[in-house]
Design goal:
By secondary structure, the protein is of the alpha/beta class. The chain is 37% helix and 14% strand. It is built from 14 helices and twelve strands. Bound molecules: pyridoxal-5'-phosphate (PLP). Residues 47, 98-100, 124, 168, 172, 196, 198, 222, 224, 230, 235 line the site of pyridoxal-5'-phosphate.
């Protein structure tokens, strides 16, 4: 060191104190940890599409020649294709590097330091994570025992500093959805209501049609789950039209990279194929749910998404997670007080379900 400036001391205090987000590890890290060869693992921890992306995406990415060029900062073609897919106007759509990117820019748009964001745990960890980075204050209003929203408690928690509420529907990790009437009650509050429909293709029950009718509703979607391109980072938000120019202004100009751009367009041109894989996962969700119900020490919760949350009773949920990991089966365990007695298993292929159930029987 040629000098001794204490740069660590310059890090924003709130960011020093905040808890890090716990992401899922890549398959090769997991297989190394379990000492099970990569081809012989079952990755059921990230709610990904086990069938992969559309073959048209693979082909188009290999054929594409313009990776040396910057992608369109106005996302023209992508927004047009998304408008056709969603039935919404293209000037109400903003695309991002995953819906995570949208969560981040929405909070940067609306949150001044000290403003409040309502989070209803257990839910997706990106909402409190991005709130804290934006300098906002997270107000926790826990869900009820059946994981539905605590509406009276939410209303009570709202005050003059509250700006945004996030509701994942279907919710991760519980797999249940909020009703239209619940969302309408939230829309009547003086807040931005962000309904995160990351798993809507598995539930078939969207509230996106409400967006043109409410000044404060944003619906988020992603290509990570149903379209099998989590690794390319592609998501979007359908927003009130007067908010879109601000989101477009503050997003990173080239937030949709060229590969994601190509993959979004090709996925939307191959809906028949992708819907087949979605149907396979929806059918497999029932097989997995019924399989899990055979264990008297597991209580799976009904899910309309592509994962199932289970309460583990009479033994440690973490031990179950570690026991499966040793066999090369990777599921999700959350180190939080609300979820310490639960595991979440993503819906995989039929062979993955057979493997999980057999491994659970051995425990
Ligand atoms: C509810 C919810 N929203 C958003 C995301 C993130 O999606 P993306 O990959 O598009 O950033 C996830 C991923 O797990 C999720 O569960």
């Amino acid at each position: 060191m040629l000098n001794s400036i204490d740069v660590e001391n310059m890090v924003r205090g709130a960011l020093k104190r905040m808890t890090a987000y716990t992401p899922v590890d890549p398959a090769e890290v997991l297989s190394g940890r379990a000492q099970v060869p990569a081809g012989q693992t079952a990755k059921l921890d990230g709610n990904e599409n086990p069938y992969g992306c559309s073959p048209r995406v693979q082909k188009a990415l290999a054929k594409f020649r313009d990776y040396n060029r910057y992608p369109d900062p106005d996302q023209r073609e992508v927004r047009k294709a998304l408008a056709k897919y969603t039935g919404m106007k293209s000037d109400s759509i903003v695309a991002g590097a995953g819906s995570d990117d949208l969560i981040d820019i929405i909070l940067r748009l609306f949150i001044e330091p000290g403003d409040k964001v309502i989070n209803c745990p257990p839910t997706f960890g990106m909402y409190p994570f991005c709130t804290e980075i934006a300098g906002g204050e997270v107000v926790k209003v826990p869900r009820k025992a059946d994981f539905s929203l605590g509406l009276p408690a939410i209303k009570k928690a709202v005050d003059a500093e509250t700006r945004v509420i996030f509701v994942a529907s279907p919710n991760n990790p519980s797999g249940n959805q909020a009703s239209e009437s619940e969302i309408k009650e939230l829309l009547a509050l003086d807040l931005i209501v962000v309904v995160d429909e990351a798993y809507v293709e598995f539930s078939g029950n969207s509230l996106i049609q409400l967006v043109p009718h409410y000044a404060n509703l944003i619906v988020l979607r992603t290509f990570s789950k149903w379209a099998g391109i989590a690794g390319l980072r592609a998501g979007y938000g359908v927003c009130p039209i007067n908010i879109v120019p601000y989101l477009m202004k503050i997003k990173q100009p080239y937030n949709i990279n060229m590969a994601a751009y190509v993959a979004i367009l090709e996925s939307l041109a191959d809906l028949g194929y992708l819907q087949k894989t979605v149907r396979a996962m929806v059918e497999e969700r029932d097989v997995l749910y019924n399989g899990l119900r055979e264990f008297n020490w597991l209580k799976p919760f009904p899910s309309v998404a592509n994962f199932i949350l289970c309460a583990v009773q009479g033994r440690g949920a973490r031990d179950v997670y570690l026991g499966l990991q040793k066999k090369g089966i990777f599921i999700r365990y959350f180190e939080t007080s609300e979820l310490k007695d639960y595991i979440r298993i993503s819906v995989g292929r039929p062979q993955d379900t057979i493997r999980v159930i057999a491994a659970l029987r051995d425990m």
